[in-house]
Amino acid sequence: MKCNHCGSTVPSVSVVCPFCKEVIDPNAKPVTDFGNISDTDYDKKSTLVAYIKEPKNKKVVILGISVIVVVIIIFGALILSLFSGSNRPDYMVFTDVVTYVSEYLNDNYFDDAATYSGEYELDLNINGEATEYRGEYALDIASKVARLTGIMRDPQESTGGIILESKDFSFTSYLENNELFFSSPQVLGSTYILFPLDDPYGLLSTRNYNLTTLVSSIASACNAALEQMNYETTLEEIEHRGETLQVTKLNLVLDNAQKRVFLTTFYATLIEDSNFLNELSRLRDQTTDEIITILKNYSTTAEYAYSGSSDYRSEIAIYYNANNIYRIEVIFDEEDIADTIWRVEIGDNRLYLYYIVEDDTVFEMDLTYTERDYQDHILKTYDVVYSSESLNFEATLEAEDQKQVVINREDITDYKNIRDFSVEDYNTVRTNLSPLLEDVSWLEEFGALFNDRCRTAYNCVCNDGEDTCTCRVDNDGTSEIITCPKEDVSSVTTTDNVS
User: Fold this and answer.
1) Which helix (H) or strand (E) holds 56?
2) Do 280 and 292 meet the contact criterion of CB atoms below 8 Å apart?
3) Integer Cα distance of 227 and 99 in angstroms
4) Is there a smaller number of Cβ atoms within 10 Å at the N or the C end of the chain?
5) Contacts of 395 (CB under 8 A, 6+ apart)
6) Per-position b or e across 41-62, b if 16+ CB within 10 A of its CB
7) Number of helical (H) and strand (E) elements in the chain, helices listed first
8) In the predicted model, what is the mean pLDDT of residues 388-405?
């Protein structure tokens, strides 16, 4: 049961919340408001049906969560834009969204004053297996510092249930610039593991650049390009949450001609933006003339690539009527992404995301977001349901953003770089994780992503259809066999197509 005042999880028999000391009203329900949206009843059963043609990996799940959270941000902008008055150019619906998103990101994340800290609770249920994490977080994007701690618990601990099997797991992670440190007693004891993060654009490692300027400049260039686009407005009949609706469809078609105009206008606007050029030259450690040359090359490449006719195209469509927005679709029919649709349905206090490939629903998700303001913190709650043939996933994340933010830097000296991991280190981690995970075969492949020894490896064997290779590398006078990503060993002696 949740306390209706502070949102904490409390035993179902509680009368007074042990956290905020307020009397609990078991009948009180949180209020969610996405704006002016449909009153269609929520049918939970329909959101748990998914048809999948081929099993997808975890990246699809992460991408899906990211997309639906972004949709929450842009939905408010769409409401303001579509219903702010008549006789406005169609392009302003899209430019308003770009402006809104850029301002939201700058105000909440990229501004120097954008810092967050607090406590969180994450309840997970993956294919019927329930787990709960509790911990603390801190984030300072301007300083490129982040900290996250967590303790895994059995959800029955909160309700007084009987725990038949307990699996302990706790962790501490700390990010500063492009160095990510991770520590867990159940992984490598008290020693931190250092994961050096690739930073090809210098976003993490470069100091004294203004990210808000870059975001604002890119948004302005995008808006300048959107003003040059042609839009289509038609009347459509759609099926929405069990209803047949008559709606207006506002459509942006990106065929070759539109892509060429968009990209050449986009790059030309950036070339004329001295603030963007100065910040990017500082970030990339290049002169502004070098940045201009790169942008002109991008523009020339785009103009050439989309100069002819082609059947490949993408579309962005918004379905709405005088009072509501019902659907947002992004449709890809490109050479590398064919017959693919990302669809967002707006229901009653809930967003539904569908990922469709060749008319088959690969997965679907729905999300509810609530926010409550208390004296010393803001409670943000995200409820996510994901469903496919191979994975059913439910998660509830509660984050208490403290109004008095505390960010503590750490000086970590006891650590081991994953690039220096030996066979013995991997065996230790594998042994420690075995009681918690049934399958740890991914461990060495994961470590290979950070292993720069692969660039000096030799006698590499790369099998067909695999992204990794088996290689030899010298280690203190002895030869050691390691696993490397295929792209990291392409310049050394390899034996490809080994079956």
Assistant:
1) none
2) no
3) 13
4) C
5) 122, 123, 124, 125, 382, 383, 384, 386
6) eeeeeebeebebeeebeeebbe
7) 10, 20
8) 91
Mean pLDDT of the chain: 78
Name the more confident of 129 and 317.
317
Task: Tell me the pLDDT tens digit for each residue of 418-436.
Answer: 888 888 888 888 888 888 7
SS3 266: helix
Q: Percent of the chain, pLDDT > 90?
A: 35
Query: Mind listing the pLDDT tens digit for each residue in 12-58?
Result: 555 666 555 566 776 664 333 333 333 333 332 222 222 222 333 33
Buried b (16+ CB within 10 A) or exposed e, 8-33: bbbeeeeeebeeeeeebeeeeeeeee
Placement of tokens 């006698």 in the chain: 459
Which residues are CB-contacts of 3 (< 8 A; sequence separation ≥ 6)? 9, 10, 14, 17, 19, 20, 22, 24
Dihedral, CA of residue 351, residue 140, residue 449 and residue 432, to nearest 10: -90
Backbone angles phi, psi at 268, to 5 degrees: -65, -35
Residue owning tokens 């976003």: 203
Note the pLDDT tens digit of each residue in 270-302: 999 999 999 999 888 889 999 999 999 999 999
Pairwise CA distance, residues 459 & 76, whole Å = 56
Alpha helices in 135-286 (DSSP H): 185-188, 211-226, 256-271, 274-284
What tokens appear for 375 in the block? 């004296």
Alpha carbon 115 to its chain centroid, in Å, reads 19
CA distance 483 to 468: 6
Q: Residue 90, Cβ neighbours under 10 Å: how many?
A: 15
Q: How confident is the model at residue 66, as a pLDDT?
A: 47
- The answer, yes or no, to whether residue 3 has pLDDT greater than 60, is yes
